[in-house]
Write a structure and sequence with these properties.
This protein has about 325 residues and is α/β, with parallel strands linked by helices. It is about 35% helix and about 25% strand.
Length: about 325
């Protein structure tokens, strides 16, 4: 059940609760949700996730946050993980001023009810980030609820976090970013009309307008992708960048070429999952050189997909 106000949640003192933004819903987040469900199942109670919109740093830090997923996807994936109650709180300036004690005592404990609170190892809450695991435990001791935390998850000596994944995507380390996400990095957009240059080159592409302009655009380059459009999956290539062969200082674009595809999909929604990073964006001296490289990209894509399928077998 998805709620948009704590006032809409029925009070239950046996609730197992966690709090977080959960952008990307990576493997460390999933460990928190798994822990939440295990604890709720052990006492035949409910699991409750409190999350926020927009990203708190947009309000606290007054800066643009490049999101790893839309709010719609985040809530859907939390729900798909089996969580009973999801409350999406509007995080505005007034909410940012709520103290850690008031948030925990008046809102979480008072309105939801808490048997146990589960937090990420470094999660903070409340004005000035004063709410820590240690703080929550002191409050829990007074009010009679337990506080547990989930240890950091590491991959290749890196701590799994949303900020780490953003950095990896920006620096082109898609493999590790996908490993931390537990799935390929993906985004959705609407197919819009472009200048048809790809079709003129023999590689008709779908130009995407991202479903949310705050979504992170990874490092410029060419990627092997899996795209879902009109309910069907297609393999293909995505070119992300400014098309330096034809433009100087252009606007970043996402162009997707799909294998064995010839269909009018203008205005349709497409989900693109980045499977493998082939190369950096390159500037060519001529359209002919670009075509040769695109043919090479297709061959490498096919070889990669064949190896991947064989490995899965």
């Amino acid at each position: 059940m998805i709620r948009y106000s704590l006032d809409d949640i029925t009070y239950d003192p046996k609730s197992i609760v966690t709090v977080g933004t959960f952008d990307g819903l990576h493997v460390a987040h999933r460990r928190i949700l798994d822990t939440l469900q295990e604890k709720a199942g052990a006492i035949a109670s409910r699991s409750v996730v409190i999350t926020f919109k927009p990203h708190p740093q947009e309000i606290i830090g007054k800066k643009k946050i490049e999101l790893l997923m839309t709010e719609e996807d985040r809530v859907r994936m939390i729900s798909d993980a089996g969580i009973d109650e999801i409350c999406v709180i509007k995080f505005d300036r007034d909410f940012s001023l709520v103290t850690a004690e008031d948030f925990l005592v008046k809102l979480v404990y008072g309105k939801i009810g808490v048997h146990e609170l589960v937090l990420g190892y470094n999660h903070t809450f409340g004005r000035g980030a004063q709410g820590t695991v240690e703080f929550a435990r002191k409050v829990g001791e007074k009010l009679g609820f337990a506080v547990d935390y989930v240890e950091a998850v590491r991959m290749e000596a890196e701590i799994v976090s949303s900020s780490t994944i953003r950095r990896l995507l920006h620096t082109g380390n898609l493999a590790l970013a996908n490993g931390m996400l537990g799935r390929p990095y993906s985004f959705e957009g609407y197919v819009i009309r472009g200048d048809a240059r790809g079709r003129d080159l023999g590689f008709p592409t779908a130009n995407l307008k991202l479903a949310d302009e705050r979504l992170l655009i990874p490092s410029f380059g060419v990627y092997v992708v899996e795209a879902i459009v009109q309910g069907e999956k297609f393999a293909g290539l995505a070119s992300i960048g400014v098309r330096p062969t034809f433009e100087d200082g252009g606007t970043p674009m996402v162009e997707v070429w799909l294998s064995d595809f010839d269909r009018d999909i203008y205005g349709k929604r497409m989900r693109v999952s980045l499977i493998h990073r082939l190369r950096d964006e390159m500037k060519f001296d001529s359209a002919e050189q670009l075509i040769l490289q695109m043919e090479q990209d297709k061959r490498v894509m096919s070889e990669f997909l064949v190896k991947t399928v064989n490995k899965q077998r």
